[in-house]
UniProtKB/TrEMBL annotation:
Keywords: Aminopeptidase, Hydrolase, Metal-binding, Protease. Binds 2 divalent metal cations per subunit. Has a high-affinity and a low affinity metal-binding site. The true nature of the physiological cofactor is under debate. The enzyme is active with cobalt, zinc, manganese or divalent iron ions. Most likely, methionine aminopeptidases function as mononuclear Fe(2+)-metalloproteases under physiological conditions, and the catalytically relevant metal-binding site has been assigned to the histidine-containing high-affinity site. Its EC number is 3.4.11.18. Belongs to the peptidase M24A family. Methionine aminopeptidase type 1 subfamily. A divalent metal cation 2 binds at residues 105, 168, 201, 232. The lineage of its organism: Bacteria, Bacillati, Bacillota, Bacilli, Bacillales. This is Methionine aminopeptidase. Residues 12-239 form the Peptidase M24 domain. It catalyses: Release of N-terminal amino acids, preferentially methionine, from peptides and arylamides. Removes the N-terminal methionine from nascent proteins. The N-terminal methionine is often cleaved when the second residue in the primary sequence is small and uncharged (Met-Ala-, Cys, Gly, Pro, Ser, Thr, or Val). Requires deformylation of the N(alpha)-formylated initiator methionine before it can be hydrolyzed. GO terms for molecular function: aminopeptidase activity. Its cofactor is Co(2+); Zn(2+); Mn(2+); Fe(2+). Substrate binds at residues 77, 175. Pfam families: Peptidase_M24.
Length: 248
């Protein structure tokens, strides 16, 4: 079931998004060779609780952490861990904020020290894919318009667009209808309506789009072991165009 949010609900989600964005800005200051993703996870949990929010991912379907921390070939849902990040790594930090019952969700890929041209190119294209998708999040457009904009931009530059994981509606629950694939055909799929709140979160790979799952049942990796990046915003569909609720 798709729930349309009132202006008041969107404003409350925007407040959650502002807190999430502020936390990401602090995370960016921490990213350097030698820090562990466990330390980043502890920081995020502490920061959110200090500011009166709940790290919503803890306990979600048994997940134990405030963040997902996906390194290099990990596409999404990487477990935070004690091993330090190394110079040249890329890491995606993804988390959901619950502020007074209103949710916001955003992932961001960070460079660790000096990264390769390949990694930088991937990050640049993935971030541009995010905003290409957001441009299509207009009343009257269809979900396929979002996916098509992302897919055509990435594939024209030789990158793989992950199919198995998608954006989604968000509201009182982390995952609501509709699903928002990052591939598709223009003019196809559900029509976007004012009051929808969705995530757009392209996961883009240097190589093939296919993934494989770790034994933990959460962490997805690229099938060919090549790099993957992800950027995500929570978006409200409004009469004035897409409103980014998690803008940094």
């Amino acid at each position: 079931m798709i729930t349309l949010k009132s202006n008041r609900e969107i404003q409350s989600m925007h407040e959650a998004g502002k807190l999430l964005a502020a936390c990401h800005r602090e995370v960016a200051k921490l990213i350097k060779p030698g820090i562990s993703t466990s330390a980043i996870d502890r920081f995020v949990e502490t920061y959110l609780k200090k500011h009166g929010a709940i790290p919503e991912q803890i306990g979600y379907n048994g997940y134990q952490y405030a963040t997902c921390a996906s390194v290099n070939d990990e596409i999404c849902h990487g477990y935070p861990r004690k091993e330090p990040l190394a110079n040249g790594d890329i890491v995606t930090i993804d988390f959901v904020v619950n502020l007074n019952g209103s949710l916001a969700d955003s992932a961001w890929t960070y460079a660790v020290g000096d990264i390769s041209d390949e990694a930088k190119g991937l990050m640049d294209v993935t971030l541009e894919c995010l905003y290409k998708g957001i441009e299509q999040a207009q009343i009257g457009n269809r979900i396929g318009d979002i996916g098509h904009a992302i897919q055509t931009y990435a594939e024209a530059r030789g990158y793989g667009v992950v199919r198995e994981f998608t954006g989604h509606g968000i509201g009182p629950r982390i995952h609501e209808e509709p699903q928002i694939p990052h591939f598709g055909s223009p003019g196809k799929g559900l029509r976007l309506k004012e009051g929808m709140v969705i995530t757009i979160e392209p996961m883009i790979n240097v190589g093939v789009w296919e993934s494989k799952m770790d034994a933990n049942g959460w962490t997805a990796r690229t099938a060919d072991g090549k790099l993957s990046a992800q950027y995500e915003h929570t978006i409200a569909i409004t009469k004035d165009g897409p409103l980014i609720l998690t803008m940094q």
